[in-house]
């Protein structure tokens, strides 16, 4: 199957057309589902478990009851028997790398004390209970379990409740169960979609409410997370996957083509873009893509994705390539050029940056250690990858002795009065109504 990927000269006008086209992929384009999602959420709030069981039957064709909604230790033990030992082995190796990387992100409480009796500080506390949504439906995502659960565990979250839709037989994918057990999930529930998000946000008899919900899912899941935000915290809303490769004439066209295809296979809305300073590389990459398509499984999805959002752009020079990459702010950015680390220093906006020709994107999806939950759709301009920070919160610490407060109390009274808040002023001055220290 030949695709003949578009090779386009990069200029202001082609860049603007591409930026506009990419924005069509935003989850904000799916407002028509909002009413349905709001209906499911209010039904779960009203009828609790009964609503969950009904929706599981309707959408997942699964009969779930109070007795079967929570995955048992026996089911988990059976899952270990169902997966190949090599899968368990790689799950454990990945956990090792992901934990080691996230340990480095940990933040600690700090306290500063002055000799005059002022103590100021910041206390770091893990969020108490987190819900992790793991998509079920069409595929299994053990890597998604690890990437969402492990930062929470490293942060010190006490309760990690996972929900995932069951198959029609009422079972959950064994790879998902094993990954959850290995990562330290404390409870697993068989429920998917907007109803799962509602249960985590408001609680039912079977599923206790959590404080924060993370994890990817389809449009029903994404809109439900948006709808419950405020009652609980959420991570960002993930859009379709994307890759941008910056390459010069030194890049290996086979590697570049393979990496573009690795994202295109996700779904029809995924975006794969090459920006190169070499017209000859552009042509070679296009040919390699056609060659690979003969042997890859998901060629229909890849063809649609490349047709919709795939581009090979030829830039006048490296600095034009870098500026455009910064404007697109891709989820994944690969640099395959001379002096790739120097190019990296000029990248301002990207979810994850892969440097050099042996750092292909799936290395980050599964194994290297950094989180694969990344900002999409240009949001790398202001969002960061999922991290330990998403599972902690901070409290400010303030302690003044009488000796520390006395010399400054009139300043504070003056400020409070300037705002017309006499009770504020009073709560300071009352402490010195009998004056001296
Ligand atoms: P899912 O678990 O997200 O959705 C399945 C649920 O959707 C069902 O349980 C059902 O409750 C609900 N649903 C289905 N049809 C419905 C309808 N007509 N009305 C109301 N609710 C309905 O699984 P999925 O559908 O396979 O989607 C998985 C998504 O997650 C994909 O879009 C995939 O790309 C994405 N994903 C993203 C990442 C990432 O890291 N960004 C990782 C893995 C998966």
UniProtKB/TrEMBL annotation:
**Cofactor detail note:** Binds 1 zinc ion per subunit.
Which residues does UniProt mark as catalytic?
331 (proton acceptor), 332 (proton acceptor)
Name its pathway.
Amino-acid biosynthesis; L-histidine biosynthesis; L-histidine from 5-phospho-alpha-D-ribose 1-diphosphate: step 9/9
Query: GO BP, one example?
Result: L-histidine biosynthetic process
Any idea which positions bind substrate? 241, 263, 266, 332, 365, 419, 424
A cellular component term, taken from the record's GO annotations: cytosol
Q: Which CDD domains match?
A: Histidinol_dh (cd06572)
Q: Which superkingdom?
A: Bacteria
- Reaction(s) catalysed by this chain's protein: L-histidinol + 2 NAD(+) + H2O = L-histidine + 2 NADH + 3 H(+)
Tell me any Pfam family this protein matches: Histidinol_dh
Residues annotated as binding NAD(+): 133, 195, 218
Binding residues for Zn(2+), per the UniProt record?
263, 266, 365, 424
Q: Which UniProt keywords apply?
A: Amino-acid biosynthesis, Histidine biosynthesis, Metal-binding, NAD, Oxidoreductase, Zinc
Please provide, alphabetically and separated by semicolons, the GO molecular function terms listed in this UniProt record. Answer: histidinol dehydrogenase activity; NAD binding; zinc ion binding
Which PROSITE patterns does this one have? HISOL_DEHYDROGENASE (PS00611)
Q: Which InterPro entries match?
A: Ald_DH/histidinol_DH, Histidinol_DH_CS, Histidinol_DH_monofunct, Hstdl_DH
SUPFAM superfamilies named in the record = ALDH-like
Known EC number: 1.1.1.23
The record's annotation in NCBIfam families points to:
hisD
What family classification does the UniProt entry report for this protein?
Belongs to the histidinol dehydrogenase family.
What this chain does, per the entry, is described as: Catalyzes the sequential NAD-dependent oxidations of L-histidinol to L-histidinaldehyde and then to L-histidine.
Provide the protein name.
Histidinol dehydrogenase
Originating organism = Lachnoclostridium phytofermentans (strain ATCC 700394 / DSM 18823 / ISDg) (Clostridium phytofermentans)
| This protein's encoding gene | hisD
């Amino acid at each position: 199957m030949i695709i003949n990927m578009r090779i386009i000269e990069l200029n202001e006008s082609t860049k603007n057309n591409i930026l506009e086209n990419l924005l069509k992929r935003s989850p904000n384009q799916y407002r028509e589902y909002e009413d349905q999602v709001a209906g499911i959420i209010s039904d779960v709030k009203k009828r609790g478990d009964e609503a969950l069981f009904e929706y599981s039957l309707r959408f997942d064709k699964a009969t779930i009851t109070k007795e079967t909604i929570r995955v048992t230790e026996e089911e988990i033990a059976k899952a270990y028997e169902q997966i190949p030992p090599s899968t368990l082995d790689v799950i454990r190796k990945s956990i090792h790398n992901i934990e080691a990387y996230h340990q480095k992100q940990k933040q600690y409480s700090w306290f500063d004390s002055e000799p005059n009796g002022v103590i100021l500080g910041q206390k770091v506390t893990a969020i108490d209970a987190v819900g992790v949504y793991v998509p079920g439906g069409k595929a299994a995502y053990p890597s998604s379990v690890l990437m969402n659960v492990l930062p929470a565990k490293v942060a010190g979250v006490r309760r990690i409740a996972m929900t995932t839709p069951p198959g029609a037989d009422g079972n959950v994918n064994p790879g998902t169960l094993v990954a959850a057990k290995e990562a330290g999930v404390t409870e697993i529930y068989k429920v998917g979609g907007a109803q799962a998000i509602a249960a985590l946000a408001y609680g039912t008899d079977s599923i206790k409410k959590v404080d924060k919900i993370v994890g990817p899912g389809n449009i029903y899941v994404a809109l439900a997370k948006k709808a419950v935000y405020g009652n609980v915290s959420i991570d960002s809303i993930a859009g379709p996957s994307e890759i941008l490769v910056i390459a010069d004439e030194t890049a290996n066209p086979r590697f570049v083509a393979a990496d573009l295809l690795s994202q295109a296979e996700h779904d029809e809305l995924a975006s794969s873009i090459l920006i190169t300073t070499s017209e000859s590389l552009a042509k070679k990459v296009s040919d390699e893509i056609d060659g690979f398509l003969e042997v890859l499984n998901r060629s229909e999805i890849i063809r649609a994705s490349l047709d919709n959002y795939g581009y090979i752009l030829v830039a006048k020079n490296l600095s034009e390539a870098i500026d455009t990459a910064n404007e697109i702010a891709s989820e994944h950015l690969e640099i395959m050029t001379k002096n790739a680390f120097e190019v990296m220093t000029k990248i301002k906006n990207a979810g994850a940056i892969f440097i050099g020709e042996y750092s292909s994107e799936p290395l980050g999806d599964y194994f290297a250690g950094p989180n694969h939950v990344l900002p999409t759709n240009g949001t790398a301009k202001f969002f960061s990858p999922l991290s330990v920070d998403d599972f902690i919160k901070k409290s400010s610490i303030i302690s003044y002795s009488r000796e520390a407060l006395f010399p400054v109390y009139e300043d504070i009274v003056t400020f409070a009065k300037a705002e017309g808040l006499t009770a504020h002023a009073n709560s300071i001055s009352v402490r010195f109504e009998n004056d001296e220290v």
